[in-house]
Structures are given as structure tokens and as C-alpha cells.
Task: inverse folding
């Protein structure tokens, strides 16, 4: 037969372990969530930077071909476009 002091000690240790495990898991989960948010923000910044680079490349006229072929663009020049087509043919 186990003495009551041993039973109280055993169940006290069990309760303390459960509470410590609960507390420790919460701290680990909070750190993980913070890291996940930081990674998401960094990824979002990276995507924005890539989109800005792509937009700049799209907006810059190419050095080889600075003829604008979009007739809606205010910088469109039909004579340059026809000259380019003649040169290509």
C-alpha cells in the first residue's frame, strides 16, 4: 500500500507537468506564429519587388526596338512602325 504522501507528491508532479507542458506549448506556438507572420510579410515584400521589376521592364522601351506598336499609346509613331516593318522584310 502506498502512503498518502507519495500519492500527493505523485499527483502534484503530474499536475505540475501538465501545466508546464501547456504553458511551454503556448510559448512555442506563439513563437512559431510570429515566425510564420514574419515569413509571410517577407514573401509578400519579395513578390511586390518582383512585380515592380517586371512592371519596370515592361514599361521601359527595349534598346533594340524602341518602336511603340500600341496605337493607343500617346508616343505611337506610325512612320517608325512602317520603317521597322520595311527593315524586317
Result:
Amino acid at each position: 500500500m502506498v502512503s498518502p504522501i507519495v500519492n500527493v507528491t505523485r499527483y502534484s508532479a503530474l499536475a505540475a507537468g501538465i501545466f508546464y507542458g501547456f504553458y511551454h506549448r503556448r510559448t512555442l506556438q506563439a513563437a512559431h506564429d510570429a515566425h510564420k507572420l514574419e515569413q509571410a510579410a517577407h514573401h509578400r515584400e519579395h513578390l511586390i519587388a518582383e512585380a515592380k521589376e517586371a512592371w519596370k521592364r515592361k514599361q521601359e522601351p527595349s534598346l533594340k526596338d524602341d518602336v511603340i506598336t500600341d496605337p493607343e499609346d500617346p508616343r505611337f509613331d506610325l512612320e517608325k512602325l512602317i520603317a521597322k516593318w520595311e527593315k524586317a522584310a
About this structure: The radius of gyration is 34 Å. The mean pLDDT is 91. Residues 4-62 form one domain. Helices lie at 4-59, 78-88.
